[in-house]
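Hi V.,

You were right to ask for the full record rather than a summary. Here it is.
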Amino acid sequence: MLDTSIVVAGLRSRRGAANAVLRLVAMRHLVILATPPLFLEYEDVLKRPEQQLAHGLGPDSVDEFLAEIAALAEPVEIHFQWRPQAADPSDEMVMEAAINGEANALVIYNLADFSLPSKRFGIPIVRPVDILKKVKT
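Predicted structure:
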């Protein structure tokens, strides 16, 4: 399960750990989970002018990237909304996808905002660099 910040950071820097996580997804060494609201958030954030300036992709290239991610993602149906769980209301859709999709881990940068729901639902939270150490390629 990838938080939006991981997808954004992965496109902004080709050398960072988040980009390496995206490459693992592309190679099918990691499976990501996605709900329609979470996927729409990916699109919204990646198409913001400041993000396009940072990652250098135009709207058509963002659409191509998202199509590839969609083809690799495991869709998650929301059977129950578990709100509120996260400290930040904008993180609720990430937690719902993780909970309903029975994620093995949630890859994020902001560990503090997810620590309580992570413990409550038994979903480990890890930084990109940590998941890279765990995944065998």
